[in-house]
């Protein structure tokens, strides 16, 4: 599983894409709750984010995704 929270750059997005390519679940924080949306946006642009959710929903989404794998 990969989770990207607020941040800059693309390195995390590339790592998340690798996880997604292998079938792993991935989550990116949404723009509205990010201080810096750069890295989550990069992941979304790469198609690496399976889910995009607000910060306060990340933990619950992680649990849901783990239960379905």
TrEMBL record:
The catalytic activity of this protein is classed by the Enzyme Commission as 3.1.1.61
- Per its UniProt entry, what is the enzyme's top EC class, as one word? hydrolase
> One of this protein's GO BP terms?
chemotaxis
| Gene Ontology molecular function | phosphorelay response regulator activity; protein-glutamate methylesterase activity
Catalysed conversion reaction? [protein]-L-glutamate 5-O-methyl ester + H2O = L-glutamyl-[protein] + methanol + H(+)
Stored PROSITE patterns: CHEB (PS50122)
Instruction: Please tell me whether the keyword Cell inner membrane is annotated for this protein.
Output: no
Q: Name one Pfam family in it.
A: CheB_methylest
Does the keyword field hold Amino-acid biosynthesis? no
Q: Name one GO cellular component term.
A: cytoplasm
Q: Name it.
A: protein-glutamate methylesterase
Q: What is the lineage of its organism?
A: Bacteria, Bacillati, Bacillota, Clostridia, Eubacteriales
């Amino acid at each position: 599983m990969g989770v990207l929270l607020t941040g800059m750059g693309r390195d995390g997005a590339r790592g998340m894409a690798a996880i997604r390519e292998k079938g792993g679940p991935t989550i990116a924080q949404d723009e509205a709750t990010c201080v810096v949306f750069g890295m989550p946006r990069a992941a979304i642009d790469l198609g690496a984010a399976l889910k995009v959710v607000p910060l306060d929903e990340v933990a619950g989404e992680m649990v849901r995704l783990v239960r379905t794998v």
